[in-house]
Amino acid sequence: MAFDALRDTLPDYAKDIKLNLGSLAGDQTLSEQQKWGAFLACAHATGTPALIRALEAETADKLAPEAKTAAKAAAAIMGMNNVYYRSIHLLKNEEYRTLRAGLRMNVLANPGVDKGDFELWSLAVSAVNGCGMCLDSHEEELRKRGFSAPQIQTALRIAAVVNAGAAVLRAEAALAA
User: Fold this and answer.
1) What average pLDDT does the structure give for the chain?
2) Catalytic-residue membership of 131
3) DSSP secondary structure string, 75-103?
4) Which end of the chain is least crowded, N or C, by CB within 10 Å?
5) What CATH class does 32-176 carry?
6) 134 annotated active-site
7) What is d(CA 133, CA 130) in angstroms, rounded to the nearest whole number?
8) pLDDT, position 16
């Protein structure tokens, strides 16, 4: 279990992060694909090598290849969209909101997995990347697709805990260097 081994590497001061990772791994609010896809997408969004390697290994037998690709695609496309739309939202000049984005986003139309799962992973990555405009857009789409508030909250909890784990791992790596 790569995931358990990763949790064990977290220092004692991050005990809450360890506990939350464990409880979310066992959470039943989401399907296994939804849950592990959210973990994987968020790991890729953090860019933290140890976390990415652990979740790639952990999901090897939990996610179909198409789902793994889609989770990574969610991290990739949201890496672009979250910067763009967060910037548009933060700019005082509202003219930018009226302009066409002009960015390719084909994967959104055909992600290779259930569109709801992809939206859930995009929401989680948007939380990691801090884009309120994207969070609102994906939450609205998920609600239209019948996702409940507890399911959406679970994806947000995964994003928060994976992001915190990544921060701890980066800090510890910096101390070791």
Assistant:
1) 95
2) yes
3) HHHHHHHHHHHHHHHH-S-THHHHS----
4) C
5) mainly alpha
6) yes
7) 9
8) 97
